Amino acid sequence: MDADGRNQCALCVEYGAHGEIVFRRESRGAEQPWLTVEVRANLPVCGGCFDWMSRLLLHAALPAGRAPTPNGFPPPVPEDSAHVSSCDFCRGSLRFEAFVVDFVPAHRPGDVARLPFRASHSGRVSQFRLCEGCWTWARSIAYDDSTLREGGERRRDGSDEALARVPARPLCGVFLLEDDERTARAAAARLRVPFSTLSLAQARRFGGEDGTVCLVGAGTGPRATALLEVLSNTARANVLLVTRMDSIADAGNALQLGAGDFATSPLSFEQIAGSLDRFQDANRIEKRDPKTGLPIYRRGAGRLGFPGHVVRIVPPSGEDIRALAWLLRRFLRGYDRIGASADGGLEVVVYCPDTAIRRVLARLRSLIGDYASTLPVDHLPAPAPLRKAS
Predict the structure, then answer these.
(1) Domains and CATH numbers, the chain
(2) What one-character-per-residue DSSP string does 213-246 give?
(3) Do the beta carbons of residue 127 and residue 99 sit within 8 Å?
(4) Any bridge partners for residue 98, and if so which?
(5) What is the spatial distance between Cα 214 and Cα 203, in angstroms, rounded to a whole number?
(6) Cα 27 from Cα 38, distance rounded (Å)
(7) b/e map of 90-110 (b: 16 or more CB within 10 Å)?
(8) What is the C-alpha separation between 129 and 26, in angstroms, rounded?
(9) Which H or E element spans position 36?
(10) Residues sharing a CB contact under 8 Å with residue 87, sequence separation 6 or more, in sequence order
(11) Is 350 helix (H, G, I), strand (E, B) or coil?
């Protein structure tokens, strides 16, 4: 509720909560039932967001016959590959840990009958039991739906404004989804630079000496890793990995080999612009985290006219931070930097006015929940404005 006691939707900020979307983690022993370990987030939502989100996730759970889309849906799988211990989206095996998305109508029992729920227990309607990767994708959609419907925090991502602030560099691509390639080609046209689609043989000869940035689509197998292995260090440093939820492992291995940056599919102009800005900052990376390949960034001044706000995100000890980094890359604006910290967590630099950082931190904490602590640790002053020659 807000300060006036009114129910407010956590996703679109409209009033009149219709139900709740609950994100929780479960575990079990061998041959034992699933038990809730923790609730990561409990979101009141309006009727429109409740219905939209539940139907979107139902579509993601459909069996084979659904082609990959820029929504980042998990890859289609044969229908007969599902079993009682499999992820409802990708059908990957669930052993002793699972992540659940619950849709809980607020009032009338009739609401349950009108939505495609599969099971009900103790007043809670439990809809999807997922692996961590698919659950991460579902949470990222909940907090940033602008790639799926017209609206959201990143409405300007498709505008020319994002590309107007960065230096132009030629672009090329390999292994890209059709929609990602279309976005990259349109970005190149607005930057007035060439874009070329490479065959695998051409990609293996990519040199990067002329400053061209090569967008490489990571895969469910090691295709990006295999490509990076045959490239020179200069070429690797000019690779922008385009990643989906199901390609986190391939992208992580490619980052360990020295890939320059990563973005998430579906691409936006702002993600491309943010990467070009980072490529322009040649001294940005101090070193690489040996476990994940994520960069450890040097702290400098703010960028693009904004101060920088350094935020450290510390997950539980021993957790793989790559999925969390992917989620943050999708959630934060393209210009913001996401890297590893020396203590094994993540360090994010958010570029925004000082008056906006409290709201950004609030949404970050809502997105991550109690899974990790979020600590502001430094403030980077805005760069001095350029003076015009008199």
Answers:
(1) 17-143 (no CATH), 154-280 (3.40.50.2300), 294-383 (3.30.70)
(2) EEEEE--SSSHHHHHHHTS-HHHHHTEEEEE-GG
(3) no
(4) 26
(5) 8
(6) 10
(7) bbbebeeebbbbbbbbeeeee
(8) 9
(9) strand 35-46
(10) 74, 93, 94, 98, 129, 130, 131, 134
(11) strand
Confidence of residue 370 (pLDDT cuts 50, 70, 90): low
Backbone φ and ψ for 254, nearest 5 degrees, come out as: -70, -35
Instruction: Please provide the DSSP assignment of 83-112 as one string.
Output: -TTB-TTT--B--SEEEEEEEEESS-THHH
Measured between alpha carbons, how far is 1 from 318 in angstroms, rounded to an integer?
35
The predicted-structure confidence for 201-211, as pLDDT tens digits, reads as follows 999 999 998 99
Chain centre distance of CA 11: 17
Strand order in the sheet with 97-105: 35-46, 17-27, 97-105, 124-130, 119-121
Determine the Cα–Cα distance for residues 9 and 1; give it in Å rounded to an integer.
Answer: 9
Widest pairwise Cα distance in the chain: 78
Instruction: Compute the CA torsion angle 157, 224, 182, 56 (nearest 10 deg).
Output: -60
- Say how far apart CA 165 and CA 276 lie, in whole Å: 10
Query: CB-based burial of residue 16 (10 Å sphere; 0-12 exposed, 13-18 middle, 19+ buried)?
Result: middle
Residue 152, number of CB atoms within 10 A of its CB = 15
Please indicate whether residue 292 or residue 229 has the higher confidence score (pLDDT): 229
Q: Tell me whether the omega of the peptide bond preceding residue 266 falls within 30 degrees of 0, making it cis.
A: yes
> Which residue has 């609730």 as its token pair?
39
DSSP secondary structure of 279-333: HH-TT-EEEE-TTT--EEEPP---BTTB-EEEEEEEPPTT---HHHHHHHHHHS-
Residue 290, classified by CB atoms within 10 Å of its CB into exposed (0-12), middle (13-18) or buried (19+), is exposed
What is the C-alpha separation between 280 and 211, in angstroms, rounded? 9
Digit-coded pLDDT (tens) for 2-59 = 444 457 787 765 667 778 888 899 999 888 889 999 888 888 888 888 888 888 888 7
In which element (H, E) is residue 273 found? helix 269-280
Cβ atoms of 307 and 299 within 8 Å: the answer is: no
Coil, strand or helix at 192: coil
**15 DSSP 8-state letter:** B
CB atoms under 10 Å from CB of 239, counted, come to 27
